[in-house]
Amino acid sequence: MQINTTGLDDLQAKLINIQEKIENTQPLMGELSNHLENIVLNSFEKQMSPDGKPWSPIKARKTDPHPEKILYSSGNLQGSLYSKATKDSAIVGLNAVSNSFQYPLTHQFGTDKAGRNKKVTIVARPFMPVDAEGKVYAGVEDELLELVEDYIEEFLI
């Protein structure tokens, strides 16, 4: 008995093409970092955590140039937002630091040891989609998985 097959050259070429595209993950990482960056920007704009919880209000101060905006005075915090994508990673962060004070970490997770005498409590006002253990919020994880699935499905069609 002998079985002859035809068309395998085309199939093999398509599989190689899919493999090459899937191995080049930098476009995917770019999509993921862009999505995460938009989540952070949305948190600042809507003044709520990425999982939809409104931030605690802040007492307005006479010297505050933007009393209607929580976590916005000079715009340095939001202005320090950056994103980067490599073939292996999607990075989003903020690097607003002044006199060794880590503004992003302090506002993301809160602290009870702020101020000159380390006696000021700052409530958490999360803007990054991660919890204190570094886990991505469930809804955001689902969104990221969907982006990955869409990326892979493009090559299978």
Question: What distinguishing features does this structure have?
Answer:
two-stranded antiparallel ribbon, elongated, 157 residues, single chain, two-stranded antiparallel sheet, alpha+beta, 6 strands
Notes on the protein architecture:
With 157 residues, this protein is an alpha+beta fold. It is built from 5 helices and 6 strands, in the order αααββββαββα. The protein has helices spanning 8-23, 26-46, 76-79, 103-109, 138-156; strands at 81-85, 90-94, 97-98, 101-102, 111-114, 120-122. The strands form 3 sheets. A two-stranded antiparallel sheet has the order 1-2. A two-stranded antiparallel sheet has the order 3-4. A two-stranded antiparallel sheet has the order 5-6. The longest helix has 21 residues, at 26-46. The radius of gyration is 22 Å and the shape is elongated.
